[in-house]
Amino acid sequence: MPVGFNTDDLMRLDELVATRKKVKQGGLLFSEGDAFTSLYAIRTGFFKTCVTSEDGREQVTGFQMAGEIIGLDGIVSDFHSCNAIALEDAEVCVMPFVNVEELSREFPVLQRHVHKIMSREIVRENGIMMLLGNMRAEERLAAFLLNLVQRLHARGFSQSELILRMTREEIGSYLGLKLETVSRTFSKFSEEGIIEVKQRYVHIIDPEALKKIFNPQVCY
Amino acid sequence: MPVGFNTDDLMRLDELVATRKKVKQGGLLFSEGDAFTSLYAIRTGFFKTCVTSEDGREQVTGFQMAGEIIGLDGIVSDFHSCNAIALEDAEVCVMPFVNVEELSREFPVLQRHVHKIMSREIVRENGIMMLLGNMRAEERLAAFLLNLVQRLHARGFSQSELILRMTREEIGSYLGLKLETVSRTFSKFSEEGIIEVKQRYVHIIDPEALKKIFNPQVCY
DNA sequence: CGAGTTCTTGACAGTGATCAAGCGACGTGG
DNA sequence: CCACGTCGCTTGATCACTGTCAAGAACTCG
């Protein structure tokens, strides 16, 4: 959004993303109960966010990659309500939320941008609710793969090949399935020639078949 | 938030919520694909929001009551991505989003308020993901009842009695269950003396038992 | 009062969970 | 460089929860 800003404006916006933080693979960027101070823009690396119930069950609420924002959960109560864990070595921009708000007041395009990011997250979660509430294991995994490869492609990676950064268990948690079911479903897709799987490596041979599984609508 | 505002400020804030709209039971406040222009604050009545998949499956994404805000889904793309349906005759304040943004820039407390509302929705949906991904039918329904009665109580209604505004099917859709399962689970709670159910009327006899079902953690 | 909707309940089926065992990949240290 | 241990993945057998199908009852509203 480099339109209509003078040098001073740009400097101040630049400052917002000046602070960097590195997180090692397996490390926590923030966790449940931490005081909320900042949003984080992922520069490199890959994260999962998850919540845990009192009796220890874990629910992965999302996987985030470069360019995506995490930490929005903390705004409402000034405390984070989920954990953000790096699935590979990562670097983030630390954006103190008071600064985000201050600059938002000055720059309507930034304000709108922030609102869109939050709205996008709400809409994404609506989609996950549909997935978890209405879809069967195969549909869930097909949707998951299509979403992942689409986001990677938007970042310049292959449209048909990817390396999963998460375990079967984490995929299962996200999709409301057990790891065995995830594994079996991968195997099934593989047997049907839709994908090729070798551990974390996935090659999508027939994306149309995946789309059809995800969305088995009327065929005229 | 009536602190530090002069008369002119208050008039402008008042203007934001001046426009009213009535929606009859069963009526749509907005639906998927509608252009997004406004957020809506519910004054009276009860809504459900839902998304539909291409092949016609419906997922209820939330139930909203007086004081709650709907329409946040539309911000990201300028089009609504869900339907908002009145489950009883309702009245809402129409808040044009451009005005919300303009006033947010002027009044930091309003800005913060808007951010919290969006964050709260994100956190709520995280909780639903946990529900849908990890919990069994009884846990889901217990959580649902506790949440509903808590929100009603915050509005001055009974802590132990409520009238459901939605069908078993809508509850089921929200909780990722079929209506028969919802009905059976109600019956089971009733047989166990935890609640008394008669159609839409529910009396919570033993809230502690519900909490224990919802959260069956270690008991020392 | 009657038609249609909503709810309850039963019998049965199916999807995915659970339990269990073995395999394969990876990393560390000898 | 290889051995070993750990962790993650796959696959099989069985089970349980919830879904599906069906019928009838209860309630609502015109």
Explain this structure.
Two copies of one chain form a homodimer. By secondary structure, chain A is α+β, with helices and mostly antiparallel strands. Chain A has helices spanning 7-16, 97-106, 108-134, 137-154, 168-175, 179-191, 207-214; strands at residues 20-23, 28-30, 38-52, 58-65, 69-70, 83-96, 161-163, 195-198, 201-204. Chain A has two domains: 7-129, Jelly Rolls (Sandwich), CATH 2.60.120.10; 136-214, Winged helix-like DNA-binding domain superfamily/Winged helix DNA-binding domain (Arc Repressor Mutant, subunit A, Orthogonal Bundle), CATH 1.10.10.10. In chain A, strands 1, 2, 3, 4, 5 and 6 form a six-stranded antiparallel β-sheet that branches. A three-stranded antiparallel β-sheet of chain A has the order 7-9-8. In chain A, helix 2 crosses helix 3 (108-134), helix 4 crosses helix 7 and helix 5 (168-175) crosses helix 6. The longest helix of chain A is centred in the middle third of the chain and has 27 residues, at 108-134. The radius of gyration of chain A is 19 Å and the shape is globular. Chain A starts with 6 loop residues before the first helix and ends in a 6-residue tail after the last helix. Chains A and B meet through helix 2, helix 3 and helix 5 of A and strand 4, helix 2, helix 3 and helix 5 of B. The structure holds a DNA duplex (30 and 30 nucleotides).
**Total strands of chain A:** 9
| Helix content range of chain A | 40-55%
Number of helices of chain A: 7
Low-confidence stretches of chain A: none
Structural class of chain A: alpha+beta
Biggest interchain interface, per-side counts: A-B, 49 and 50 residues
